[in-house]
Every structure is written in C-alpha cells, then in structure tokens.
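#struct-help
A.M.: can someone run this one for me? Single chain, 153 residues.
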Amino acid sequence: MEYMSQEGYDKLVAELHQLESVELPQVREAIAEARDKGDLSENFEYHAAKREQARLLSRIRFKQRVLENARVIDTRLLSGDGVQLLSRVEMTNLANGNRMCYTLVSPHEANIREGKISVKSPIAQALMGKKTGDEVAVRVPAGTLTLRIDSIE
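D.P.: on it. Structure tokens below:
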C-alpha cells in the first residue's frame, strides 16, 4: 500500500492520462507510418517506435499499479507532535548552522527541488517519530549529519 497526499495522487493520475491519451497514440501513429515504408526487418524507425511503445506501456502499467495501491491521507487528521508522512520539518545542521526544510512524502512524490524527500530516504528514516527539539544523527553517503528539529507542521 502506498500512502500519499491528494496532490501527489492527482499528479500521478494526470501523468497516467497524458501517457494513455497523448503519448501512446503518437507512438502508435509512428509505428503505422514506419510500417507503410516497407521492409520491417531493416526499418530502423519501426524498431525505434516499437521500443518506445514498450517503454510507454511499461510506465503505464507501473503507474496503474501504484494508483491501485494508493491511499490518500487526509492531512487534517494528522497530529503535529511527531514527524510522520506529510510532515513539514524545519531543522538545523548543527555542524555548520545551515537551516533546511523538507516535507516527507511517498517515494512517488519526492522532488528535492520542491523540498519533498521520500520517507524511505536516510534523513526521513532518522526523523520519523521524533519531536521538536530532538537531535538526530543521520548517516548519509558524505558522512554523519547531526540535525536539530526546529519545528514540525
């Protein structure tokens, strides 16, 4: 089961719709055009279009499986006393004083540019269940970070 926000669910539905209604018909059209050009055994365009179709069908099946197992979390029912899925956590790196803010989301919604990290990431795993003021040591590829949780929303 995959827990996610309503925003992440809607985004996934939109991506699936785009793949099924726009990209897949374009690839099928490219296959038909390439087929009309003659001998398929030596037709690079045909084989490239078939590979693209297989890639798209694989992505469509993956997104369908994710949506079948998705459960949208009502953020109004979440408590703000501990770090959990969909929590927005402000913290300070005690080694250098840098402040950072992340929202913990499902792996399918993770986007570091938007400040969303996967609950399966090392930082999120270390933060889960912690409270404001707690200090957490996190093992990351660059070493160990010591973080202090400043606030949880």
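A.M.: thanks! The first helix runs from residue 6 to 35.
D.P.: also worth noting: The chain has a mean pLDDT of 90.
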